[in-house]
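hiii so um. not sure if this is the right channel but i have a protein structure encoded as tokens and i wanna go backwards to a sequence. like what aa goes where. can anyone help
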């Protein structure tokens, strides 16, 4: 095992073409979590490469040559012998014993129960995507719809992107988890219960309800899937959202631009940590901002007023100050007696969020 640690210690790390993300690793022990291919490894390597090579050790815990009991027996002594002050355990496994060291960096798909600072690494939001594009013109938004938020997608040929995502999920997920994710792509933005998924999934494979609930919860815990609560009804069926819009194209032939657009808006709210809920006829209600957000890519003012009329009771009861209609490219301010109505293009809305 010591020879394998020597091999890792001698490695020259490479992180070609790294682009800054919105979060960075501080000079303290951290536990980073995010789904497969969200950029955890690149973030770690970028941080390590800013330090003297002899001061850190990077280990990829997926390496099948790692024998955990042997590793636990020698790792602390190895770090002490080489005066290593930063230990990075990528794809960390909880069987690996931890010990006192100046800085420990853990990376995994799950948030770990540790005394260290916990950092969540999301996929690219629209602002980060533009930095990866290295341009901002009329094609940027349509490109975002094609590529989604996976950082590596910019480096992959267009004909290989779906296969890249399929391979990523096949490697990161259990077979049943992948089957659930495929079903979820067909039900995105809809009110979906675990029972709904079970009824669909049992038609193609043998699975118990208990097992499905475990697998489904794992996908929620790791943020492959999100569930949006109904306002003031936490026990009501949640609306189902994907962690990235590119997944729908990669895992199903179904097309539904309106649902993809709504999912994209939800992800921007998640990535900016904005509290939101759904309500009947309302895509997103933001109570802390007294706002309603409607995801309507293409709309005219007449039909929009019809929609607002149906929401008047909610708007008055909850003292909603503003209704924001996120569109593809329409922009307008509408006069309405009970609330301020703004039609805002997605690109403008996403870049304006704090």
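sure thing!! here u go:
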């Amino acid at each position: 095992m010591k020879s394998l640690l020597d091999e890792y210690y001698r490695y020259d790390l490479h992180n070609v073409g790294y682009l800054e993300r919105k979060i960075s690793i501080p000079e303290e022990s951290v536990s980073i979590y995010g789904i497969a291919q969200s950029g955890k490894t690149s973030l770690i390597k970028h941080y390590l490469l800013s330090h003297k090579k002899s001061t850190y050790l990077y280990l990829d815990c997926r390496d099948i040559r790692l024998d955990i009991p042997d590793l636990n027996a020698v790792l602390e002594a190895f770090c002490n012998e080489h005066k290593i002050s930063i230990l990075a355990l990528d794809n960390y496994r909880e069987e690996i014993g931890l010990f006192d060291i100046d800085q420990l960096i853990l990376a995994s798909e799950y948030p770990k129960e540790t005394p260290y600072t916990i950092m969540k690494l999301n996929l690219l939001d629209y602002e980060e995507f533009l930095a990866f594009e290295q341009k901002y013109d009329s094609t940027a938004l349509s490109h975002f719809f094609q590529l989604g938020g996976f950082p590596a997608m910019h480096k992959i040929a267009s004909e290989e992107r779906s296969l890249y995502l399929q391979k990523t999920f096949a490697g990161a997920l259990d077979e049943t988890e992948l089957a659930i994710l495929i079903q979820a792509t067909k039900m995105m933005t809809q009110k979906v219960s675990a029972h709904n998924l079970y009824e669909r999934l049992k038609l193609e494979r043998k699975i118990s309800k208990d097992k499905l609930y475990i697998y489904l919860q794992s996908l929620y815990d790791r943020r492959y899937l999100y569930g949006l609560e109904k306002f003031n009804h936490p026990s009501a069926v949640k609306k189902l959202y994907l962690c990235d819009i590119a997944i729908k194209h990669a895992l199903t032939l179904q097309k539904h631009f309106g649902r993809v657009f709504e999912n994209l808006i939800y992800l921007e709210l998640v990535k900016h940590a904005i509290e939101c809920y759904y309500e009947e006829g309302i895509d997103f209600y933001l109570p802390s901002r007294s706002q309603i957000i409607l995801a309507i890519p293409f709309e005219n003012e007449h039909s929009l007023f019809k929609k607002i009329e149906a929401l008047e009771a909610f708007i008055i009861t909850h003292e909603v100050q503003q209704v924001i209609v996120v569109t593809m490219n329409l922009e307008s301010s509408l006069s309405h007696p009970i609330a301020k109505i703004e039609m805002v293009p997605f690109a403008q809305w996403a870049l304006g969020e704090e």
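oh and The mean pLDDT is 93.
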